[in-house]
Specification:
The structure holds two protein chains of two kinds. By secondary structure, chain A is mainly alpha-helical. Chain A has five helices and three strands. The radius of gyration of chain A is 17 Å and the shape is elongated. The model of chain A has no long low-confidence stretch (mean pLDDT about 90). Classes of the chains: A mainly alpha, B alpha/beta.
Chain lengths: ~110, ~525
């Protein structure tokens, strides 16, 4: 059984690949190679990868790349997708400017 | 903080259906949607839906959207647009972004019907302008009246890829190629056949190597793949296109449920991470329901039924109706839902190689690879008969949940029976009047009227036609076969449009009698034919 959090697990050396330059997270401009390298730097979960690289933290909030990053990570770690789990979901669901996020109104009050 | 009995997140087919159903039982319901228009994907669906008559088959999607919205308005459901639900918290409290503020609402029950988002596939050049989702292409065309490009490559042969390709043709674009890495077409054969007979080439077992261009897409390189999805050297070919549409599946947008603490599962058959829920769509959190694509990617017809079930379940949860009423109403809806989930394209059959129909007819491999039947294959299906005089020829070969043709025929020439996925059978003893109701009623445009005795040496063929400009009587051109090749000159002898046909015109063409079972499309060319 794989243990995602077993940090001593040997996933082998980083091997450069031809498509490492491919952009995966468009909003934050992160390439496939950067994601693969991050995993070899010890980022074994999607949450860690996200904090390390900011994948999925841009305007689309991972709507486009979330699944792609997960597939790359699962392959690099030798896991099936469901073993890897998902990154956390947090408020706000969509990007919202801080001035709006902090501007709480009663329903019906003029926004 | 404002309170409602039921808060629905998402005004698509599932959300609106749930709101309507709950409001019928007296619940005070509000629906929030982040878009400027309600209806979710329904208003982009200009094609006629499959399914049973009781569940809105043969009605175009956008009309279903209008009907649902009207029902919701009549029942006093509040639909709040441009309202983004930002969070779902303990005790069923939500925060909503409305204009420049955040507002708090509390529901005694919550229904999340946020739908799904399009998947992307990365290849060299995929970030160039001109690479778009198929759903985005549909939004541009059908909501905003903008064509996404002139020469299109569609990646993905599921129903989304097939239906959007057809709509691109209707918008006047050229679909240069339909590409799929799978060895066979994923969507309905009838949808593929509609494209193939206009001349769209299918490239199965092919993938995109790269999008060409520096500032925008100017071409694409595709290549054949082997059984292990590796590209076969020497098979690369370049096509001139300005737009690449990706129709490679959808992923449920279930983040709200996850943040609320629902137990989730990773289920590839449902499209990804979805909440675990019971038969009524209730999640592991009591009073938090789901319906539609967010609980597993399917299509709009089942989303509407799921929504209704969840709406009724919410009414029961809040004590507006007895458990017995819920059980009774939900049972009928569940049986309708399970009938939609049967047949060759049912979830449990995904990825399986089905060689025969339930009735024992061999499934055409040519249809699955090229998008159309070989001439000899088509005659063995029960909807295809040869009769003197005018009669319906139904080129329907797969067990899909759809039966409007059966009810369309006033003379009962067409029989499907109680099992909605059965192939339609043409009754040779019934007397076809040639009215064409079945031709217009078939959502798959798979029914033709053939009359081999039209006049000496000539047959007439009536085809469903949904392109503009509509040819006129006396126009000349070419008859195309099922694969889109010109087979003979043809003349339009009759053009019928009627409100009951709902924008499917019936074009009757005259061709030499030998072409009666070959010619299936008409291409106007008054100069040469």
């Amino acid at each position: 059984m794989h243990n995602v959090n077993n940090r001593s697990r040997d996933i082998g050396e980083f091997v450069p690949a031809e498509d490492d330059e491919l952009l995966i997270c468009r909003c934050e401009e992160i390439t496939k190679g950067e994601i693969r390298r991050a995993i070899h730097d010890g980022m074994f979960t999607l949450t860690e990868i996200r904090r390390y690289l900011r994948t999925g933290m841009g305007l689309c909030q991972g709507q486009t790349c979330g699944k792609l990053v997960k597939e790359i990570a699962a392959r690099e770690l030798g896991l099936v997708l469901s073993e890897l789990g998902n990154a956390s979901s947090r408020v706000p669901m969509r990007p919202i400017e801080m001035k709006v996020f902090g501007n709480e109104k009663e329903p019906g009050e003029n926004a | 903080m404002k309170r409602y009995d039921l808060i629905v997140v998402g005004a698509g087919p599932a959300g609106l259906s749930a709101a309507v159903e709950a409001a019928k039982y007296g619940l005070k319901v509000v629906v929030f949607d982040e878009n400027a228009n309600p209806g979710g994907q329904l208003f982009k669906q200009v094609h006629k839906f499959f399914g049973s008559k009781e569940h809105k088959a043969k009605i175009r999607g956008f009309r279903i959207g209008s009907q649902l919205l009207e029902e919701a308005n009549n029942l006093g459901v509040e639909v709040v647009l441009n309202a983004t639900v930002a969070g779902l918290f303990q005790d069923k409290e939500i925060t909503v972004r409305i204009k420049d503020s955040i507002q708090h609402y509390k529901g005694d029950a919550i229904l999340v019907a946020t739908g799904a988002a399009e998947n992307m596939v990365p290849f060299k050049g995929w970030t160039l302008p001109g690479v778009i989702g198929a759903g985005a292409a549909q939004t541009m065309m059908n909501l905003h009246g903008v064509v996404p490009g002139q020469k299109i490559l569609m990646l993905g042969s599921g129903n989304v890829g097939l239906v959007v390709s057809y709509q691109l043709l209707q918008a006047g674009c050229e679909v240069v190629a339909l590409v799929d890495a799978a060895p066979k077409i994923g969507g309905y054969g009838v949808h593929a056949a509609k494209l193939a007979r206009t001349g769209v080439p299918f490239y199965l077992s092919h993938t995109i190597i790269k999008a060409e261009g520096t500032d925008c897409v100017t071409g694409v390189t595709i290549a054949e793949v082997d059984k292990t999805w590796k590209t076969i050297p020497g098979t690369a070919k370049s096509l001139a296109v300005d737009t690449i549409c990706l129709a490679v599946g959808l992923s449920p947008m279930a983040q709200l449920l996850k943040m609320a603490g629902c137990i989730m599962e990773d289920n590839p058959k449902k499209g990804g991470q979805v909440p675990v829920c019971n038969a009524y769509g209730e999640t592991s959190l009591r009073g938090v329901f789901v319906a539609g694509d967010v609980s597993g990617v399917e299509e709009a017809s089942s989303a509407m039924i799921e929504g209704r079930i969840a709406g009724i379940a919410a009414a029961e949860y809040l004590g507006y109706i007895d458990k017995a009423v819920l059980t009774e109403v939900a049972e009928a809806l569940e049986s309708a839902l399970s009938s939609l989930r049967q047949g060759m394209f049912a979830v449990e059959n995904r990825g399986k190689n089905i060689e025969k129909t339930d009735e024992g007819y061999v499934v055409s491999q040519h249809l699955l690879k090229k998008g159309y039947f070989q001439d000899a294959e088509v005659e063995k299906y029960p909807g295809v008969t040869r009769q003197p005089g005018v009669h319906a020829v139904i080129e329907c070969s797969q067990n899909i949940p759809c039966n409007p043709c059966q009810d369309a025929c006033p003379r009962h020439c067409i029989k499907i029976g109680d099992k909605i996925t059965s192939l339609p059978v043409v009754d040779e003893t019934a007397n076809c009047s040639g009215c064409g109701m079945c031709v217009a009623a078939c959502s798959g445009q798979a029914i033709f009227l053939v009359n081999e005795g039209y006049e000496a040496g000539y047959a007439s063929i009536t085809i469903p036609y949904e392109f503009l400009p509509l040819p006129g009587e006396g126009d000349r051109g070419w008859a195309l076969d099922r694969g889109g090749s010109k087979v003979c000159a043809a003349e339009v002898v009759k053009v019928q449009t009627a409100p009951v046909f709902d924008h499917t015109s019936l074009l009757t063409i005259k061709v030499p009698v030998a072409m009666a079972m070959k010619a299936r499309f008409f291409k106007e060319d008054n100069c040469h034919a």
